[in-house]
Specification:
CATH superfamily of the largest domain in chain B: Thiamin diphosphate (ThDP)-binding fold, Pyr/PP domains
Largest sheet of chain A: 5 strands, parallel
Radius of gyration of chain A: 26 Å
Radius of gyration of chain B: 20 Å
CATH class of the largest domain in chain B: Alpha Beta
Shape of chain B: globular
Structural class of chain A: alpha/beta
Strand content of chain B: 15-25%
Structural class of chain B: alpha/beta
Distance between the termini of chain B: 49 Å
Order of helices and strands of chain B: EHEHEHEHHEHEHEEEEHEEHEHEHH
Number of domains of chain B: 2
Number of helices of chain B: 12
Strand content of chain A: 5-15%
CATH class of the largest domain in chain A: Alpha Beta
CATH topology of the largest domain in chain B: Rossmann fold
Oligomer: heterodimer
Strand order of the largest sheet of chain A: 1-2-3-7-6
CATH architecture of the largest domain in chain B: 3-Layer(aba) Sandwich
CATH superfamily of the largest domain in chain A: Thiamin diphosphate (ThDP)-binding fold, Pyr/PP domains
Strand order of the largest sheet of chain B: 3-2-4-5-7-6-12
Helix content of chain B: 25-40%
Number of strands of chain A: 7
CATH architecture of the largest domain in chain A: 3-Layer(aba) Sandwich
């Protein structure tokens, strides 16, 4: 009897014809439990200087969240989606990147943007409301904060892919960069998240997707969001590596995330990291979290506050004392002072900026509309300050109006 | 040399790929197959699979990836396989492609060309014949261009790819196989038509037909037929819906005092409504009659056996011209 080779008669004999390479899923699977370092023997060998640095940065990060939230209460920010409780994720996301790398943040990732070196005022421009984005994406290699969920994830894939293409075209100017996309648990339900992972897998792009699973998409808990064994398991379906980590364990976050970034940089493909964390504050200052989660639940997570966990460990390990805590607290107050000072001057956005940068060159229609607005503003100014009045040119008219009302 | 629109588009892509190493074509079936309409035929063979990339079947992913590539300084040319298959990418178009320059205070422009085969008249079953121009034209930050001739397909696509702004490039698929004497070599880069300029295709004195893309040949046919009715119709090919060439359009309307806008897309809140409003606002005292519209009906695109009733026809155009209040 002749045995037919599968390659000569596909589908007739032997295993069903395969349409593509099959991969062993085992190396791609995340650990069943989130990776932890605090409280394990691995903590003892973790670089002491890095631990102290992480602590200091987390303290500053917490103060940043508090100060930004205060600014919303003062009406100086229109809105602020705090990352309180997620500082270990935010800080390490910025720390593990090199200067050549790119960060693709979502709207809850202002802290990561600041941690990468953007001035707080510029990072908070979107939330302040005088412009859509306050920093130069090319100067910092940070895309603008993305509000439509997960839509920035495919951008990270495309940029990382482009860097590879450029490197192949012109090896002399090759940049060995990694793109890090920040997504939340809710964002993993979006089609763009799925498409980004799929494209990243197919293209083998050097991208790391960090999912900060803080348990809620505004009010909807993870159980209503996904039936996956874990969000990290989603990676396997796209042929990319999944990693599950305790997002409140700063040492584990730094370790897992830097390993993921260097894995991607080495050309082995993209990585999806799920960091299990918790949003201690409400969705934004406009949200009431008591409507969808219990005080007991929040208290349980407060006990697992990333700052508390790290401080307790550092003190026990003899790496931090009261003086160290006080020094970090002082640095945090200095940061808060600096932020407040940056917000001292009320913003005065130029109405003419409305028409700038819609296109590289304004269309004739936009030139007409800009002229119409300018003429209207001139007319308003003339009406407010007739030529024969003696008001100094810089007198603020709205303030006068307020005083009139107050009387 | 007789050249089809498909061949002219292909030549434009080839020449752009050849001249600029940053140009990258990506989309579904654009590589090995050469695209379902063969617009990208031979490009992967000539420039390699990376310059003409077969992507996974996911339009938002294609466009999102192209955005990232453009952020890094490449010049992606994306193919959406059909008008109605481009909708999954719409969020990327509206929220990022159109807004990125503005969001970043001019620091980050996205020079992306989004090619979309559009329109009906080809006997396509549902979801293959949409006229989606109004969705794009209503989105500030995009240029929206549609060629109607073989030469313009080449020239305008070259201009779109060279543009530092994103361009939605709508290709009238019923004209894909139209042919004209044309050699890409004759079009020096300097003579490539600028985006934003309309073109008078036929001068006339009685009334002005304003049209674009797939409806230009019908309008020219109507103008020829109108001669026997005693009307000398001018025909303007808009070529660019955004930016809109008010100057050429208004001059052509003022010259005749009567205008009919013709397009395939549904009339309600369509591009024709904007054109009629603009012309009325700018040319009111030159008009002898209201600006009329001949458009697709306000219905989902019909099944192929009924599409002839839906599409603008010579008869419907001449009927509209007849209603332009000729009695003194």
């Amino acid at each position: 009897m002749t045995v037919l080779d599968d390659s000569t008669a596909p589908g007739l004999v032997g295993p069903p014809h395969s349409h593509g390479p099959r991969r062993d899923p085992a190396p791609l699977l995340p650990d069943p439990e989130p990776v932890r370092i605090l409280g394990t023997p691995a903590a003892k060998t973790f670089d002491a200087g890095l631990q102290r640095d992480l602590y200091r940065r987390l303290v500053l990060g917490r103060r940043f969240n508090q100060q930004a939230t205060t600014l919303t209460r003062q009406g100086r920010l229109a809105v602020y989606p705090a990352s309180t409780g997620q500082e270990a994720c935010q800080i390490t996301a910025a720390m593990v990147l090199r200067g050549v790398d790119w960060l693709f943040p979502s709207y809850r990732d202002t802290l990561a943007v600041v941690a990468r070196g953007v001035r707080p005022l510029d990072a908070l421009t979107l939330m302040r409301g005088h412009a859509h984005s306050g920093y130069d994406p090319y100067e910092h290699r940070i895309a603008p904060l993305s509000t439509p969920l997960a839509t920035q994830a495919p951008h990270a894939v495309g940029l990382a892919h482009a860097a590879r293409l450029r490197a192949a075209m012109d090896p002399a100017s090759a940049e060995d960069l990694v793109a890090l996309a920040l997504v939340g648990d809710g964002g993993t339900s979006e089609g763009d998240f799925h498409e980004a992972l799929n494209f990243a897998g197919v293209l083998g792009a050097p991208v790391v997707f960090l999912v900060q699973n803080n348990g809620y998409a505004i009010s909807v808990p993870l159980a209503s969001q996904s039936a996956a064994p874990s969000l990290a398991h989603k990676a396997v379906g796209y042929g990319i590596a999944g990693r599950l980590v305790d997002g409140n364990d700063a040492l584990a976050m730094h370790s897992v995330l830097s390993a993921a970034v260097e894995y991607a940089r080495s050309g082995r493909g993209p990585v999806l990291v799920e960091a299990v964390t918790y949003r201690l504050d409400a969705h934004t200052n406009a949200d009431d979290a008591t409507r969808y989660r219990s005080a007991a639940e929040v208290d349980a997570w407060r006990a697992r506050d990333p700052l508390t966990l790290l401080e307790r460990h550092l003190r026990a390990a003899g790496l931090l004392d009261d003086a160290g805590v006080a020094a970090a607290a002082q640095a945090a107050e200095d940061l808060a002072d600096e932020i407040r000072a940056q917000f001292d001057d009320p913003p005065d956005p130029d109405p003419d900026s409305l028409f700038a940068h819609v296109y590289a060159q304004p269309t004739s229609q936009l030139r007409e509309q800009a002229a119409e607005l300018a003429a209207r503003l001139d007319a308003d100014a003339d009406a407010a300050f007739p030529a024969d009045t003696a008001f100094p040119a810089d007198t603020a008219f709205p303030a006068d109006a307020d005083e009139d009302e107050a009387r | 040399m007789s050249t089809t629109m498909v061949a002219a588009l292909n030549a434009a892509l080839r020449d752009s790929l050849r001249e600029d190493a940053g140009v990258h074509v990506l989309g579904e079936d654009v590589g090995t197959l050469g695209g379902v309409f063969r617009v990208t035929d031979g490009l992967a063979a000539e420039f390699g699979a990376q310059r003409c990339l077969d992507t996974p079947l996911a339009e938002a992913g294609i466009l999102g990836t192209a955005i990232g590539m453009a952020m890094y300084g490449l010049r992606p040319v994306v193919e959406m396989q059909f008008d109605a298959f481009a909708y999954p990418a719409f969020e990327q178009v509206v929220s990022h492609v159109a807004k990125m320059r503005n969001r970043t205070g001019g620091r980050m422009g996205l020079p992306i060309t989004i090619r979309v085969p559009y329109g009906g008249g080809v006997g396509g079953v549902e979801h293959h014949s949409d006229s989606s121009e109004a969705y794009y034209a209503h989105t500030p930050g995009l240029h929206v261009v549609t060629p109607a001739t073989v030469a313009d397909s080449y020239g305008l696509l070259r201009s779109a790819i060279a543009s530092d702004d994103p361009v939605v490039f709508l290709e009238p698929k019923r004209l894909y196989w139209s042919a004209a004497d044309f050699s890409p070599a004759e079009v020096a880069t300097a003579r490539v038509p600028p985006i934003g300029r309309a073109m008078v295709r036929r001068p006339g004195t009685s009334a002005t037909l304003l049209t674009y893309g797939p409806s230009l040949p019908i309008c020219l046919e109507a103008a020829a037929a109108a001669r026997s009715e005693g009307w000398d119709l001018a025909v303007v090919d808009l070529r660019s819906l955004v930016p809109f060439d008010d100057e050429t359009v208004c001059a052509a309307v003022r010259a005749t005092g009567r205008a009919v806008v013709v397009h395939e897309a549904a009339g309600f809140a369509g591009v024709g409504a904007e054109i009629a409003a603009r012309v009325t606002e700018r040319c009111f005292h030159h008009l002898a009659a209201p600006v009329l519209r001949v458009t697709g009906y306000d219905i989902p695109y019909p099944p192929p056996m009924l599409e002839k009733h839906h599409l603008p026809s010579v008869d419907r155009i001449l009927d509209a011209v007849a209603r332009l209040q000729w009695e003194q």
